[in-house]
Amino acid sequence: MRRLVRTAALPAVALTLGAVQAAPAQAAPSPPVTVTTHAGPPQSGSATSQPVYLLHGLALRGGADCASSWKQAKAQLRSAGFRGPLITWGHYTHDTNCTRRTNGTLNTSTLELGRRFAWDVYQRYSRHGVPVRIVAHSLGGLIAATALAGVKARPHTSQSWPPYLLVKDVVTLSTPFRGIAGSCSTKYRQCRDLKPGSALQSWLAKQSLQGRGGTDWTLVSAATDTRVPYRSALGATAKHKVYYLSGQGITHYNLHHLDSGHSWRIRYTNNGGASYKTTKDGVSPLRYTALALTSSAR
């Protein structure tokens, strides 16, 4: 087990999988709308100088403010030593204050959002040999999962997929791998994707969610999340999973903002759920996220 900083409650075990065979390069789709840019190809550099993508969740009003969604997370990542780009990725036309966004709507399928995201990662980083890390809330985690699964499985669509992705780590915060609870209008494609037992979830459950060289997944959830039950948020294959116990005021909508305290009650596993341990001295969800990424970066 890797040496961890400030808490013994954080498991850090890497998933391993054989390298993906690179397919012939294919034509990329139209690039997403670029809000900010950087000049020239990136350099691989040290692990903590490599990029971290932040993907927000479902926005039923048609857009999210990336700055407010990820303010606390970005501060935690900087505090943990990440010096590279922190890329807030928007998937709706009406998203604001995002590093980059693609012009999706609530009727853009999660599979298509994953494909667009995969191309951004590949064109900007993977093809230059630069691995990335991903932090995702809710639907954002399914977009990340679909990107990795789609690159390997190449589902039948009229659009192309990149040949491979270099994704070192993914941390999901209340991602509905087994669907959401409560209402979400089925007139929207994304709501249909999020329904328990949807075609998307059934397909994802059969796929490898590994990038070239392996991808380490950490799933974070809360027992009191009534939108994404913790069993759904922990419903994908990963060697480390954690859920925050009840009575701590955690909801689906504040989980990805909680950034302080060292007395959180959590249950966690570092063996894929075969056994769990409990501690009363856990760190906050965002500190846990930063430490999960940091433990594999050092």
Question: Could you characterize the architecture of this molecule?
Answer:
With 298 residues, the protein is of the alpha/beta class. The protein has a single domain (47-297), classed as Rossmann fold. The protein is built from seven helices and ten strands. It has helices at residues 66-79, 110-124, 139-153, 189-194, 199-204, 230-233, 285-297; strands at residues 33-34, 52-55, 86-90, 100-101, 132-137, 167-173, 216-222, 240-244, 264-269, 277-282. It has a ten-stranded mixed β-sheet, sandwiched between helices. The radius of gyration is 18 Å and the shape is globular. The two termini are 13 Å apart. Residues 1-44 have low confidence and may be disordered.
Structural class: alpha/beta
Low-confidence stretches: 1-44
Percentage of residues in strands: 15-25%
Largest sheet: 10 strands, mixed
Global mean pLDDT: 86
- Sketch the topology as an H/E string, one letter per element: EEHEEHEHEHHEHEEEH
**Integer-rounded radius of gyration:** 18 Å
CATH architecture: 3-Layer(aba) Sandwich
Q: Tell me roughly what share of residues is in helical segments.
A: 10-25%
Question: What does the oligomeric state look like here?
Answer: single chain
Q: CATH top level?
A: Alpha Beta
- Overall number of domains: 1
Apparent shape: globular
